[in-house]
Specification:
235 residues; alpha/beta; D-Maltodextrin-Binding Protein, domain 2; nine-stranded mixed sheet; 8 helices
Amino acid sequence: MYGQRFSYCLVSFLFLTSMSWCTSAQLTIATLADKDLTHVRVMEKILTDAYGLLNIPIELKIMPNKRSLLASNSGRVDGEAGRIAGMEKEYPNLIMVPEFLYSLNVLVYSKHHNFKVDGWESLRPYRIGVLRGAKYAEIGSKGMDTLIVSYGTQLFQALDAGRIDVAVLHESGNLSLSGVKGVNVLQPPLQKIIIYHYLHKKHQSLVPKVNCAIRKVKNKKLLPYCTQLLGVGEQ
C-alpha cells in the first residue's frame, strides 16, 4: 500500500516537473527576412510581452519568407511570428492564433505610370514586382506577369532599372532604404492585410493561452476565460 502511494506520488511529481519544464522551455519563432526591421520589432515586442505573461522565453529567428514557412510547418521551429490568415490551408501543421497582431496596407509603387488602383485586376496590364513568400502577393498576382524578389529594397531597384512597371509591397521603409528616387505611391491602397501569429500543432495546447496573452498585451478587454487562463484580472 505504501509502495503504491509512493509510486503514485513519484509519478505525479515527475509529471508536474515535466509540465513546468515544458512551459518554461524557449520557443524559436521564425520571422521574415526584411531589411526594414520595423515590422520585425513590432512582432517581437508584442510576442515577447505576450509569452512573457506565460513565463515562456522566445527567440525570433530571421529566415527567408518561403523557408521560414517550411521550417515552421515541419516543426524545425515552433511557429511563425506573423502571417496573413489561411496559411494552415497550405501548411496544415500550423495553427493560427485568433487574436490578430496588427494590420498593414499593401501599396502599389511606380515611376512612370499613374492610374487609380482598383484591386489586383487593375495591375494585370503591367509587369509586377512582388516579394517572394508574401502570400497576399502570390494569391493576388496569380496568372499575371510577375518578377519575384527576396527583399523589398530589390523591388525598388528593379523598378528603377525598368525591369518592372509597378512594385507591390506592404507599407514599410524599404523605399527609403533602397535609395531609389522618383517613385510614386499610387492610390488608393491595393488591400489591407491582417497579421496573425502561428504555432506548430505540437504546441496546440498553448494556443488559447497565447491568444489571451496577445489580447492583454494589446490592452484589449479580456474575456472571462482569458482571466482564468492567465490568472490575471483587468487593469
